[in-house]
Design a protein that fits this description.
The complex is a heterodimer of chains A (163) and B (421). Helix content of chain A is 43%, strand content 11%. By secondary structure, chain A is α+β, with helices and mostly antiparallel strands. Chain A has a 4-stranded mixed beta sheet with strand order 2-1-3-4, covered by helices on one side. In chain A, a hairpin with a 2-residue loop joins strand 3 (140-142) and strand 4 (145-147). Chain A is elongated and about 50 Å long. Chain B has 421 residues and is an alpha/beta fold. Chain B has helices at residues 17-22, 27-35, 39-49, 61-69, 91-98, 100-113, 128-143, 174-181, 210-222, 224-230, 261-267, 292-295, 302-307, 326-340, 346-363, 371-382, 390-415; strands at 77-82, 118-123, 159-164, 205-209, 238-245, 251-256, 259-260, 277-281, 290-291, 299-300, 316-321. In chain B, strands 6-5-11-8-9 form a 5-stranded mixed beta sheet, with helices on both faces. Chain B has a 4-stranded parallel beta sheet with strand order 3-2-1-4, with helices on both faces. The chains are: A alpha+beta (163), B alpha/beta (421). The interface between A and B is large, with 42 and 56 residues.
Chain lengths: 163, 421
Amino acid sequence: MAETELYKLTETMCGEIDQWIAKFPPERKQSALLASLHIVQKETGWLSTAQLNAVADYLGLAYVTVYEVATFYSMYDLQPVGRHKVHLCNNISCMLNGSEKLSEHVKAKLGVEFGATTTDGKFTLKHAECLAACAGAPAAQIDGVHYENLTPEKIDKILDNLD
Amino acid sequence: MTNVCYRTLQFDEPWTLEAYESVGGYQVLRRIMQEKTPCDQIINELKEASLRGRGGAGFPTGVKWSFMTSASQGAKYVVCNADESEPGTCKDRDILRYNPHQLIEGMIIAGYAMGCTSGYIYIRGEFTEPFARVETALQQAKAAGLVGSNILESGFDFQLETAIGAGAYICGEETALLNSLEGKKGFPRFKPPFPANVGLYGRPTTVNNVETLASVPVILEKGAKWFLELGKPNNGGTKIFSVTGHVNKPGNYEVPLGIPFKELLELAGGVRNGNKLKAVIPGGSSMPVLPAEIIMETDMDYDSLMKAGSMLGTAAVIVMDETTCMVKALECISKFYMEESCGQCTPCREGTGWLHRVIHRIENGQGKPEDLDNLVRVAKNIEGRTICALGEAAAWPVGAFMKHFRDEFAYHIQHKKCLVG
């Protein structure tokens, strides 16, 4: 990690991170770490090592502390991703309501397996663990928005409308 | 249906302060602040109401709160667990989206009753819309002087903030949640010490589920007796059942505890396509599955389900009809616990992988006759040998599927295909 380029957090990012820091006791800045990573990840959809280091510096944390958190939680992407993140749930309630068929459909439509990004850099397809939308199974989360009662036709429409 | 946590649902915009106040929202808080109700009185009311934790464990809420009252001076915390992620469970998301003010009122009252200085609502990272609703509601409550310093001129100070997760089922475990709230990875902590003694930042802390906290204002408004009698002794009140899977009308049903399963199934429109019921997981995917003939004779409350060989858990009722392959169902469940094991304890980290791989090979026609005993053995070797209950969550489904549907697994191994479908 020694070769990492420098990255500077934007003013907007710092402003948003400061709001999170203010929620916690002054000596507990680390509590703002998860939110800070979400804020920085908004920029490109994923977190580079340089960005992780910048967050660590800003919060006064050891780099390893930030790496440990960034690698633990599933919502942080540490590799480049497509412009749109498509997360399909395949847990029990969704599975009982046809999520496998839906998954096959989306894989074929996008031409990628789960965990991969389309060659045009438009979509990254991933599994979601239970989204707590089980009454609307099968469910998916696309760019942070929940979609429920999905059918191949419905998800086609959603994906086709993304630029 | 009797709406306790969902009492604003009839409005077009049920999440607003106006909607909540129109059903009597914040009146209980106003009364408590004005009368300076003794903390013991509030806690006793919850004990008499027999409110039990709605997050899965079913621990009596009043008793949990009473652990805090003798704790030392200084910072004390109440934390709301809004990390809903047990497969099948989608009830808290609707409280957060549609009635966030009731959760906030419940938290302020909890803070007052336990002598807390601050509270946090820890919301899972995927909950974009619920987070925004709670945040907006919290700002409204702050502007109205209901949260913060000197609440309603009472002299009581209570700071309340939202916090956010980032994708980890384990953070629904209360001590993992506290670590996550401290900005760490979500590893569960050893208990004891319990959070009531050593919790957030090492200070006394109580963690309660969304539905538990949102029930509090209504219990205190209408009385412990009213709430208790909605349900049955030791199982007070209503419960939100997330009924999903093979039913005609999946949804969240807030109904009295102790409702016969048959009636709940009717509310959810019955089994889809008029199919025959095969099995039901009554409390979220970690709870033991029950075959149709048992669940059809069972009432839906903590004690009845325990007697029937399962548990109420989060009251996520996963319905499976006759077309369901039980091997496939268990494969799906076991994959989840393998993915979500945090990796801290060896029996769970390694065992959940073994369970999934063995079930996966049975499902794919490569099972061996000895696999059935091996599954039971591996599950037994996880159970009780881990820091937190994820070990049990992974082991119990395997034990129950083997107990009730062993023949179907054996058929799969012998014939390399499903008994059904």
